[in-house]
Amino acid sequence: MKRRIPLRKRLLVRLLFVSALIAVCSVAATAWLAVTTTTSALKEEQGQDLAADNSILARLSGYAATHPGWADVQRTVRDLAARTGRRIALTTADRSLVADSAPRGTPLPPRPAATVDPLRTDTYTETGAQLSGIDPRVVGPYRVTAKERAGLDALAAKRRRCYERFGVETTVVRAPSGRPVLSAPEGTDTSYASEQCADGQLNTPAPTEQKALNDLSELARPCLGRAGLNLGGPLFFTFDPSGKDPLGGGSPMSKYANPTSRLGQVAQGCVLSARRTQLEPYVAPVAELFLGIGDQNPSRFDMSAANKAKVVGAAGLVLAVTVAVTAVVAVRLSRPLRALTEAAQQPPELHVRVPVTTRDETGILAEAFNDLAERRERLEAQRKAMVSDIAHELRSPLTNIRGWLEVVRDGVVDPDPALLASLHEESLVLQRVIDDLQDLAAADAGTLRVHREPLRAGDLLDQVAAAHRVAAGTAGVALRTEADGTAWLDADPVRMRQALGNLVTNALRHTPSDGTVSLAAHRDGQEVVLTVTDTGTGIAPEDLPHVFDRFWRAEKSRSRRTGGSGLGLPIVRHLVAAHGGTVGATSERGAGAVFTLRLPAAAPPGEAP
Fold first, then answer.
1. What is the rounded distance in angstroms from the CA atom of residue 116 to the CA atom of residue 60?
2. Of 361, 371, 429, 488, which residue is 20 to 30 A from 350 by alpha carbon distance?
3. Bigger pLDDT: 390 or 80?
């Protein structure tokens, strides 16, 4: 009987589950890596792009702050494009091309990335930022001469030595105008040293700077007058070396230096406007900056070392988990297979069994192997018993024949008709055993042939009864037949008489005197049912499954004369199977036995099937 395996226990389902688990882990790890590394790379790429864009803008703003025009900017644009891998283009406000790193005729990006205007955008004071105001690199008329710079350097060195006496380390930084400026490390307290070292000389405007400040005053005066800030006297500013705050204490403008007051804001606006007017001739015109992807730009995605480490680590983890899961599943699956292999390699005579530890396909395979081993052990025992039985069946008639022949040869007994009849009977017994063995061998080899022809069931029963009428009369057993006239078989008459004859012989042997053996036939749908019924001693229930086994006898102590050879019923089974039918036996102890043959029915001759 085919055993049904629970779905969750099936080997295919388990393998699919493991594969799906590994696939899910791999996909999840891959997705996590992709999201993590891509996000990190995009952030890094965006940061790099933004830094590159700011550096381009700062460089071009510096160029505009130090040049009165864009005449020689093409070389700077190409150098920046080669270094950053970006396409860089400059145009005027009306989109007239000033400079471009791309070949002539290449369309501009849809919108500008920034406006290059050093008079309104400061890209110098804070790296990477765009502050509102004038770029400190726009110095114009405030650039000191070489002679003035030398004098200022001497004053800066003197101031630096003074600071050192108070334990303050400073460095000299050159401002865009050429003026030296002292710079102390961040967080250093320089207030006391500044008071002690102040000489009023280093921060005093040089003649060139003073002239520029005076010009700035004249430019700012009309705006201040329109705002009602006409001071009436000469206008001057406290000099700021950075150039960012021209207003300071100590001047007539000092009361307007607070940028949080309304007047302060107005004053700051006027001065800033005047300063732009003053510096405008020294800077390049306002330009629009266009940025795009350059020809030399390689792949935009370059995995960093940290992301590579993440990929390698996650891939290694997934690989380790996969190997571990696969190893566990492989061990669980291969363990029963190894046990089966080891059991199969044992000597056959040991009939080794294997433990059944699972309920899946391998467990069923182990059960089938154990069943096979059990059947093989049983068949081996039957083979040994069959060899012994065959030897016994052949030895008995041969011994009788040999004994009588030796007695006759020695002249002890004369070969009279009775002796010859006895020897003939023994030879018939021997011939019958050999014929039965030959029939069984042909059935086992698949060479048992039947010659079918239309056969009336009633005629078949009459022929078998006639052949056994004398034996039945000798045993004192009544032999009866009953047949349905419509029952026809497509069968081999000789083989069917042999099969029914074996059943009748077996029934006569087990039926006492005054008993009855009945042969019957009737049609049952597409089959013809043949029965042989006796009123003998019957068969025990535990013996019924073995009645068609070779050389099997219910009573092992019975002699060959009373028990037969044990080959008749197996031959019946093979003959019926050769006709496509089945045979079975039912019995009750002490109430006789019924052997039933079911064979395919055939249409009578002359009728359509």
1. 7
2. 361
3. 80
